Amino acid sequence: MRSRYSAYVTGNLPYLRKTWHPDTCPELSPEELTTQWSRLEVIRSKLGLKKSIVEFKAWYLEGDIEHALHEISLFKLHKKRWVYVEPLSDFPQ
């Protein structure tokens, strides 16, 4: 999660593609990586053997105002690498 956040901050498009599950990875362009991210807050996580869940807030600036993207994300082990799959609506118990 933290490495993907860093990739968004630095505009590292190849890394984002590499860490996104091939079944759900959208077409990404450099123009989509212009958000000015300011900080990452990992709220909680649940590690499993083949899938993991991470709830986080990624803070960004619009002008002088800070906003948060709040997401619960599903990650799966794919070819011996953790990859982002999709957002979830709730944190599973």
Give the C-alpha Rg: 13 Å
**What CATH architecture would you give?**
Roll
CATH topology: Nuclear Transport Factor 2, Chain: A
Question: How is the biggest beta sheet arranged?
Answer: 4 strands, antiparallel
**How much helix, percentage-wise, in residues?**
10-25%
Point out poorly predicted stretches: none
**Total beta-strand segments:** 4
Shape, per Cα inertia axes? globular
Q: Give the number of domains.
A: 1
CATH class: Alpha Beta
Q: What is the ordering of alpha helices and beta strands?
A: HHEEEE
Structural class: alpha+beta
Strand content: over 45%
Beginning-to-end CA distance, first to last residue: 20 Å
Question: What secondary-structure arrangement, pairings included, does this model have?
Answer:
Elements: H1 2-10, H2 13-18, E1 36-47, E2 51-62, E3 65-78, E4 81-88
Antiparallel strand pairs: 1-2, 2-3, 3-4
Q: What are the defining features of this structure?
A:
93 residues, alpha+beta, Nuclear Transport Factor 2, Chain: A, four-stranded antiparallel beta sheet, 2 helices, 49% strand, globular, YchJ family metal-binding protein, YchJ-like_M, NTF2-like_dom_sf
Question: How would you describe this structure to a colleague?
Answer:
The chain has 93 residues and is α+β, with helices and mostly antiparallel strands. The protein has a single domain (2-88), classed as Roll (Nuclear Transport Factor 2, Chain: A). 16% of the residues lie in helices and 49% in strands. It has helices spanning 2-10, 13-18; strands at 36-47, 51-62, 65-78, 81-88. The chain has a four-stranded antiparallel β-sheet with strand order 1-2-3-4, covered by helices on one side. Strand 1 and strand 2 (51-62) form a beta hairpin. It is globular and about 40 Å long. The two termini are 20 Å apart. InterPro entries: NTF2-like_dom_sf, YchJ-like_M.
